[in-house]
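Agenda item 2: pyridoxal-5'-phosphate complex prediction
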Amino acid sequence: MAGVAGVAGLSWSSNLSLLPLSKPSRSARRVPSVVVRNAISVETKSYTLQKSEEIFNAAKELMPGGVNSPVRAFKSVGGVPIVFDSVKGCRMWDVDGNEYIDYVGSWGPAIIGHADDKVNAALIETLKKGTSFGAPCVLENELANMVISAVPSIEMVRFVNSGTEACMGALRLARAFTGRQKIIKFEGCYHGHADSFLVKAGSGVATLGLPDSPGVPKGATYETLTSPYNDIETIKNLFNTHKGEIAAVILEPVVGNAGFIAPKLEFLNALREITKKEGALLIFDEVMTGFRLAYGGAQEYFGITPDLTTLGKIIGGGLPVGAYGGRRDIMEMVAPAGPMYQAGTLSGNPLAMTAGIHTLRRLMEPRCYEYLDKVTGDLVHGILDAGKRAGHEMSGGYIRGMFGFFFTARPVHNFEDAKKSDTAKFARFYRGMLEEGVYFAPSAFEAGFTSLAHSSKDIEQTVEAAEKVLQQI
Ligand SMILES: Cc1ncc(COP(=O)(O)O)c(C=O)c1O
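Presented output:
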């Protein structure tokens, strides 16, 4: 997308020409097709989500909205949320027996493929010794060493159980270290569901945060300032207006929670410079980008070292995990080394550490990130070319194993730009792709993920499906 312009080494951008929309939405079910095998006519199974629907309907009586995390409910794309039964490599199978090529990867962790044999074998060995000690274990040292060696900014690390916890911890630490209260976050960036981060983003000139959800006290977001992404002028104004009050600037160094939005390199550089000058900390939320854009994360990829970094997803290899880390002098404020309190019953538990260690070991093998770059590039180019042939306005981009596309030809630099894309068309595309056996994230505002388990054949199959669906929507 045009948002990547000017960033050295970024892969690609495309804005496709404007043509009128074609056909309206397609039917909800794939029509049964007939294949001829060895002269015997065999009717293939039609695409049905009957069991998914039954299970989801039951779930709605048991759990709010039938899910344990909102986007899973398919609210923005419509249709029945798919209930899955099993995963392996880049494939997923639902309870109705439908198979999908997966580009969600459990929202990021599955970078080496789902249910990797080595990770599973290691988990079984660890399991035999117990699932949780609530006390130190040597596996924590091993994963901590791997994270510290990999991520440029991290000299010490604290493991927690989710990305939300990691961001909460990093924020408390930034406030404790600087003795200041205010933080700046960017519109469209998600840092978990802790109160301080649930702020409705204002447009134009930054505003004081207002809670984005009932139940979040005004007091919790009063100190949260917001700015459009890629907009350094607003940041300068905020630092001028709130001299000596801002503890930290936190951002997704590549946005994945407003669709895929790349940073301008000069924006990242300016953030590093201004935070240093103003005595504020720079926090890279690498829950999504950590070990995905490069082994050392976005900070290695862009060559910018923040003060604190949050991690999650990949470092737990599919088990619940998070981490925050950074400069030793800052991290030594964390209890019990220092006075900033933060704790966790299951933090550093042996199963999560094991899955993380073996996932990172696989990522240390040569050429992993080149491979991700190649498959993701083929995928995004393929889809955008197919969109162009079908006459759709589209733009898209990718870096290594992270990608996204929008149904708009306009450059997307921030959340406001992203919101101008055609989300109704995305929903039609989404449901069409499901019927073709391709599982993207069920929202126009979520990045997609590839893995080492995606083969060229999987990409070809996906692009062929996209070609077909894009001609129909
Ligand atoms: C950038 C970022 N930060 C924080 C989080 C929160 O992580 P978790 O869902 O593990 O709490 C997410 C989740 O998607 C994320 O993408």
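Discussion summary: The first strand starts at residue 14 and ends at 15.
Owner for follow-up: CH.
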